[in-house]
Write a structure and sequence with these properties.
454 residues; alpha+beta; Chitinase A, domain 3; 4-stranded antiparallel beta sheet
């Protein structure tokens, strides 16, 4: 989904100086604000992170801000001509709204609840300064892990037990490794660092596997000191926060998805897979987009059959396929096609559950969500105009508007922005919370821009 600043673009400004400027205000175009957050965030789209430091001079920053102001002026013209009221634009903005709501849900339920105490930070430092040597065994089931643990407690080595289990010889070094804090799964680390020399852990579940650990050696690395702690504490705190966020996000998802009870109807899914295999092109790949679903299902008798159920509601085949992200499916393997399609359907239902949770919390009305939608509306309006009229004509339009549309730039604030500071926005997650960054560039294909009414 992905970790990123609130949302990124431009909004506007008024020639008449207001009584007091908002702390985050950078410019106004036609009464709408461009904030410093939006400006810096936009730069992270168009300027490589390692090049941001090159924007130390005010003239470079002013040029980039000028590009955003030109874009905003083009959006004003496009709005006045009614070019952004098409269904395609509204669909794009709805995707932006949903993603912004997911971001706010993540901030509220995960990021804002993840904290690190001083004691936790000091414990992490002590463990980070230690190197452990451990013996370990990875088992497929808890029963196997319990059998291994009992064997080790009885005096057998991990290699001996593996030989008994798999009927071939193993080297003991295959079951031994060095361990530093922060390098592996937190549950595994917690178990390892809690052991005394020679002690054997209970089975530790990591993913779908179970580990049994024996502590063989423990040694201190470097020279722990207060100055050393202060030097590494920020990095340790960030790692602890990431781990806590991941744990909170996983728990939040588990609770909501268990309540939603997402289900796919196997009989309907089987019919759909068969249809997709039959209609695949000569390259044995079928591409599903929301726009081609109606053509794909034309004349299909089960298009209105329920395919996905969750939270007491259901999606028909047609509805479900329009909800998934664009996906390529390998029609030469019905089993693989079914797996990938099932995953896409589950993710779409999962996102719907999370969006509904955000809406129940009133996050669809959150100021940042409303701002994000307006910002992207401006971007899309400018893009439509650019593709309809061409760059030269848009330049003429912008130049003519500049004399009539009020623009204010806070030049002192522009010069004082710290563009080299680390990005403090939400980290993009892949799983869980697939779309928790600010919305990505809108998916706006050239044929839609050429015919906005489509």
């Amino acid at each position: 989904m992905v970790a990123l600043a609130s949302l990124l673009f431009l909004a506007g400004c008024s020639r008449r100086k207001p009584a007091a400027y908002a702390p985050d205000l950078l410019a106004r175009v036609d009464g709408r604000e461009i904030t410093t957050t939006e400006f810096v965030g936009r730069l992270r789209y168009v300027v490589p992170v390692d090049s941001l430091r090159a924007l130390a001079d005010t003239s470079s920053r002013a040029r980039l801000l000028g590009d955003l102001i030109d874009e905003r002026l083009a959006a004003v013209y496009a709005e006045r001509r009614g070019l952004i009221d098409s269904a395609g634009v509204q669909d794009a903005l709805e995707r932006v709204r949903r993603q912004a709501m997911l971001r706010e849900l993540y901030l509220r339920e995960v990021r804002d609840k993840a904290t690190v105490s001083d004691e936790e930070l000091k414990r992490a430092y002590r463990r980070w300064r230690e190197e452990l040597t451990v013996g370990f065994y990875r088992a497929a089931t808890r029963e196997e892990a319990e059998w291994v643990r009992q064997g080790v407690l009885a005096g057998k080595s991990f290699a001996e037990l593996a030989s008994e289990r798999y009927k071939r010889s193993f080297n003991e070094n295959q079951f031994r490794r060095k361990l530093r804090w922060g390098e592996t799964d937190p549950a595994l680390e917690e178990a390892a660092y809690s052991l005394r020399l020679g002690e054997v852990s209970e089975p530790v579940k990591v993913g779908q596997m179970y580990y049994v650990i024996k502590l063989l050696d423990r040694r201190m690395l470097g020279n722990p000191s207060e100055d050393d702690f202060k030097r590494v504490a920020p990095a340790l705190r960030r790692k602890l926060l990431r781990r806590k966020e991941e744990a909170l996000a996983t728990r939040f998802l588990r609770d909501h998805l268990s309540q939603a009870q997402i289900r796919l109807r196997g009989d309907v899914l089987g019919k759909l897979v068969k249809l997709l295999v039959e209609r695949a092109g000569p390259d044995s790949v079928i591409e599903l987009y929301p726009e081609n679903v109606d053509a794909l299902l034309a004349g299909v008798d089960f298009r209105d059959s329920t395919l996905v159920t969750f939270s007491g509601k259901g999606w028909t085949v047609a509805e479900a396929l329009k909800r998934i992200e664009p996906v390529r499916l390998p029609a030469n393997s019905p089993e693989l096609l079914a797996n990938r399609l099932s995953q896409a359907l589950f993710e779409a239902a999962r996102d719907e559950v999370l969006v509904e949770a955000a809406r129940n919390l009133g996050l669809d009305k959150h100021p940042r969500v409303l701002r994000d939608v307006n910002v992207w509306r401006d971007y899309l309006a400018a893009e439509i105009l650019k593709r309809r009229l061409g760059a030269e004509r848009v330049r003429s339009v912008v130049d003519s508007l500049r004399a009539h549309v009020p623009v204010v730039i806070l030049k002192t604030k522009l010069a004082s922005l710290d563009l080299a500071s680390p990005d403090t926005s939400v980290v993009q997650h892949t799983m869980p919370f697939r779309e928790l960054a600010f919305p990505p560039w809108p998916q706006w294909r050239s044929e839609q821009a050429a015919t906005p009414s489509r």
